[in-house]
Design a protein that fits this description.
This protein is an alpha/beta fold. The protein has a single domain, classed as Flavodoxin domain (Rossmann fold), CATH 3.40.50.360. Helix content is about 40%, strand content about 20%. The termini are far apart. The C terminus is likely disordered. It binds flavin mononucleotide. The site of flavin mononucleotide has 19 residues, from helix 1 and strand 5.
């Protein structure tokens, strides 16, 4: 797993998604993966009080309009082998910053993507998120919904394992592509085989 790199991009308002992101980071780093985290921050953050009743939050979430955010300075999608994207669920959907992010990077993140959502109830939120991303062209190979970072430690471990497996597959394909020419020449070509 040396030299394999993962970016974890997430938004977190009350800290749960951040806690999950940090656990995934730790587990990947324990296997020697280099992990960079990017926490999206809105230029105009929502006031922490009475989040459920914040008109701007509700409007941004339900209208899916683009919001201004920072936190991705230096993020170069091509520099990573896998990209992990995490979001809280608000009113059944991912947070506005994440919606804006995936629109902004549509067609630009070509590496395999693993996504997770955090929510109060266990539902198929992450599957919906995966499908939305797939409809935009992202290659999503893993999804998970976490309700409690502590109680769901097992789920988080499995998620990290899934990312490690994808990294191993990527590593293998890179190695096979970098076989020295001398060895390649010794392999019979497909054309020769058919003769
Ligand atoms: C405005 C708002 C709407 C929410 N809507 C849902 C929801 O539809 N379903 C759900 O299970 N949890 C919902 N939640 C709970 C959050 O998804 C949950 O607390 C999440 O883990 C928070 O992540 P964060 O701490 O990273 O901000 C909502 C929370 C807020 C503030």
């Amino acid at each position: 797993m040396m030299y394999m790199r993962v970016a974890i991009i997430y938004y977190s308002k009350t800290g749960r998604t951040r806690a999950v992101a940090m656990r995934i980071k730790k587990k990947l780093e324990e296997s020697g993966v280099v992990v960079d985290t990017y926490e999206l921050r809105l230029d105009r953050e929502y006031s922490r009080r009475l989040l459920h009743f914040n008109p701007r939050l509700i409007y941004d979430t339900l209208s899916s309009r683009a919001v201004e955010f920072g936190g991705i300075r230096g993020f170069n999608p091509g520099a990573y082998d896998v990209v992990v994207i995490g979001s809280p669920i608000w009113f059944g959907t991912v947070a506005p910053a994440i919606k804006t992010f995936i629109r902004k990077f549509k067609g630009k993140i070509r590496k395999p993507v693993a996504c997770f959502t955090t929510a109060n109830i266990r539902s198929d939120y992450s599957l919906k998120f995966k499908r939305v991303m797939e409809s935009m062209g992202y290659r999503v190979f893993l999804h998970e919904t976490i309700t409690d970072p502590d109680a769901d430690n097992e789920l988080i471990s499995r998620f990290a394992e899934g990312v490690l497996m994808a990294l191993k597959a990527a590593e293998k394909s890179v190695l096979s592509q970098t076989t020295p020419y001398s060895q390649r020449d010794q392999r019979p070509s497909q054309h020769t085989n058919q003769e």
